[in-house]
UniProtKB/TrEMBL annotation:
The gene is LOC116312328. Binds 1 zinc ion per subunit. GO terms for biological process: cell adhesion; proteolysis. The active site is at residue 128. This is Leishmanolysin-like peptidase. Pfam families: Peptidase_M8. It comes from Oreochromis aureus (Israeli tilapia). The keyword Membrane does not apply. Its EC number is 3.4.24.-. Zn(2+) binds at residues 127, 131, 208. The keyword Protease applies. SUPFAM superfamilies: Metalloproteases ('zincins'), catalytic domain.
């Protein structure tokens, strides 16, 4: 198959005969229109110019760099893998290796029902589109080196990169290209030259980032709640380093996960030693790292034993007013839900003790994720408000005394790690 993109036709040696079973060109069960294809002729006699036209030259799609076929269908893969929302593949590359067409299949049954999310579907299509554009183990070998080229152009004028994936000193497979290395060094605040882009290591070479290092990236193996997913700088750097695109890196969304944590962040040797508050141990409840949700300490197959706070299934969104159940427990914990609320690790417990014949909340020695209002007062400075209290400054690692109309003076203790990540210059 040759896709006639930009009205270019790519020729191959002459064919003497056609497969008698040939009917059409397909890609992931999508039939490619004949009008998008180069012509196909056969020459029954080797030394003759006589030919039989099997398919006339297609008009192609003018002024098109990449053609995406979007297919909504209940396929065998959709039925076999209920967790799959969509999948993709590139269908064709040009003579220089640039992807010119791809297919994204969306599982039709996932577009209905109570669990359907428009934002999740959009992010999933973006994820699959990035695969077809070049972020794929099947396309890593086509990436071009435009840094060492004398030409300022991208694509065909640049030299092939060759192999871009290599194992680091621990045996982890990474992508080593200039923009990726620079983006990851900047993100982790490290000059370690081994900081190539880490790939998921459940297979030898993966088409996804390692979840322990780049949790929340649009190109991690599993996309979480839509509010937690980012089109991050490392992913855009990868698209830049394909050599096929000029990427506006300033449009990247900041990735909070692992910010400033150093070269060893996300390694199996450090994720369980309490050296980073991005990870957790046990199975208790806390806050998702973006502090938009309450979370529970969990692991999955991609974390390989490391544990993180994952958003609770129901009613975990602090920023949604409807998440509040308005129970007695909520009232005693001082929680407030709404667009300006975030999750804080609080030691204010909903347990009740009897003191001088009155009921008051008990301050516990343990901490748990609670939703309170917050507002910014300057760069990385903010105040919080507990139900019934005034706004108070939120000092890192300290405690706050709140006076509530219902219960008088309360001492609220906040876990110091929360102040590292709930920043007033956030963009979420």
């Amino acid at each position: 198959m040759q896709i006639n993109g930009n009205k270019q036709t790519f020729y191959s040696p002459r064919c003497g005969r056609a497969n008698k079973n040939y009917r059409r060109e397909t890609c992931l069960d999508v039939t490619i229109p004949d009008d998008h294809l180069a012509g196909c002729d056969i020459y029954p006699e080797a030394d003759s110019h006589k030919r039989t036209v099997l398919r006339p030259e297609g008009a192609g799609v003018p002024d098109t760099d990449f053609l995406l076929y979007l297919h909504v269908q209940a396929t065998d893969k959709c039925r076999a893998e209920p967790s799959v929302l969509a999948y993709a593949v590139h269908c064709q590359t040009d003579s220089h290796g640039r992807p010119v067409a791809g297919v994204v299949v969306i599982c039709r049954d996932r577009l209905t029902g109570a669990t359907y999310s428009h934002q999740t579907t959009v992010q999933t299509v973006i994820h699959e589109l990035f695969h077809a554009l070049g972020f794929s183990k099947d396309l890593f070998s086509t990436w071009r080196d435009c840094y060492s080229s004398s030409s300022s152009q991208v694509g065909a004028d640049c030299s092939p990169r060759g192999k871009v994936t290599h194992s680091d000193r621990s045996g982890h497979m990474r992508i080593y290209t200039p923009s990726i290395i620079s983006a990851l060094q900047k993100h982790l605040v490290s000059s370690d030259p081994q900081l190539g882009g880490p790939l998921e290591n459940l297979v030898l070479v993966s088409s996804h980032w390692e979840s322990r290092v780049l949790q929340g990236s649009i190109m991690s193996a599993v996309l979480g709640d839509p509010s937690t997913v980012r089109i991050d700088p490392v992913t855009l750097a990868a698209l830049q380093d394909t050599g096929w695109y000029t990427v506006d890196l300033s449009r990247a969304q900041s990735l909070v996960w692992g910010d400033g944590e150093g070269a060893m962040f996300g390694s199996l040797s450090t994720c369980q030693d309490n050296s980073s508050s991005f990870f957790c141990t046990g199975s208790g409840r806390g806050c998702h790292f973006l502090h938009l949700h309450k979370g529970e300490c969990q692991t999955d197959q991609f974390l390989e034993g490391c544990r993180v706070y994952k958003p609770l299934q129901n009613g975990s969104e602090c920023w949604k007013k409807e998440s509040s159940r308005w129970t007695a427990e909520d009232e005693l914990s001082g929680e407030i839900f709404g667009f300006d609320s975030r999750c804080f690790l609080s030691s204010l417990s909903p347990q009740v003790c009897v003191c001088n014949q009155s009921q008051v909340p008990r301050v516990s020695s343990s901490v748990e994720g609670r939703c309170y209002r917050h507002r910014c007062t300057g760069p990385n400075r903010y105040q919080i408000q507990v139900s019934g209290s005034e706004w108070v400054d939120c000092p890192a690692g300290g405690n706050i005394q709140c006076y509530t109309t219902e219960m008088g003076k309360l001492d609220l203790y906040f876990h110091k790690s929360v102040f590292i990540f709930v920043k007033c210059d956030f963009d979420y």
